[in-house]
Amino acid sequence: MPSKPRNYSQSPLKTLSAKSRNTLPNMNQPILKVENLRAGIEGKEILKGINLTVMPGEVHAIMGPNGSGKSTFSSVLAGDPRFTVLGGTATLAGTDLLDLPPETRSHAGLFLSFQYPVEIPGVTMVNFMRAAINAKRKYLDEEPLSAAEFLKLMRQKRAIVELDNKLASRSVNEGFSGGEKKRNEIFQMAMLEPKLSILDETDSGLDIDALRIVAGGVNKLRTDRNATIVITHYQRLLDYIKPDFVHILYKGRIVHSGGPELALELEEKGYDWIKEQVGE
Question: Is 165 inside a domain boundary?
């Protein structure tokens, strides 16, 4: 895998038809291509020109101080309607993301793991995941999974994150501990097999054992046909999920990119040197 930061000034991708939905990512085509993405909320611009290219098989870490736009970036890619796109482009395996509703972005291969997963009382994990899987299969013009096929798949994927069968039978996240909720997020990721997974501060609130299990699940799901963006404040997660690239997001822009050593530098020095470097 590449060890040096990529030049992020490449020309933008042409938008491909959404009917390429069944095709696997082209190994020479970015899974995610973001060009000069600008977005805001309630008249306030938060993202001020994000440029990012993520190739198949890569893990990218995005770090930065509070309020820099990290969670806004993930929300905009996922289609959170609270945010308004003000300019730029974002494509997923060649398909234009920004004009698609959130559920279509998910079906097309985008997955977002939330920092604070919500509880859905009255909806069991089994029913929730079966509905999600079969909705995606319908989008892909595939037959729905039978009950037996679904339960077999669920058993296989549960083992990846050591998710207890009793949790899988309960309402979505209801009464789960913080670690159980995060395991459940990675279990959903395993079930849906996305092209691009965005993990928004998945390490938040986890003890070492839960962090190890969650990170281990992410690593097991990594292939040369998918990619991951890890958004985090802390180096400790990157001890378990090894990134190919680390980017520093500050005041709505990626102001510095490097290899895994950049996260260690941030752990040692903090962000003051970045603020001085960009003149603020």
Answer: no
- pLDDT value for 267: 86
Whether 200 maps to a domain, the answer reads: yes
Identity of residue 275: K
Percent of the chain past pLDDT 70, that is, above it, reads 90
Which structural domain, as residue segments, surrounds residue 210? Answer: 18-114+195-277
Query: Which of 206, 136, 202, 129 is closest to 169 using CA atoms?
Result: 129
CATH code, 73: 3.40.50.300
Three-state SS at 143: coil
What count of Cα atoms within 13 Å lies in the side-chain half-sphere of residue 228? 28
Residue 44 forms beta bridges with which residues? 41
Tell me what the pLDDT averaged over the chain comes to: 86
Stated pTM of the model? 0.86
One-letter identity of residue 77:
L
Assess if residue 134 is contained within a domain.
Answer: no
Q: Which residue has the tokens 């180096």?
A: 235
Query: Residue 72: which pLDDT band, with cuts at 50, 70 and 90?
Result: very high
- Cα–Cα distance, 129 to 111 (Å, whole number): 14
Q: Which ranges constitute the DSSP H helices of the chain?
A: 70-78, 102-108, 125-139, 147-160, 165-168, 178-192, 208-221, 235-238, 261-269, 272-277
Residue 273 lies in a domain: yes
Q: What confidence tens digit (pLDDT) does each residue in 183-223 have?
A: 889 999 999 999 999 999 887 778 888 888 888 989 999 99
Rounded to the nearest 10 degrees, the angle between the axes of helix 125-139 and helix 178-192 is 30
Distance CA 104, CA 98 (A): 11
pLDDT value for 189:
93
**Structural domain count of the chain:** 1
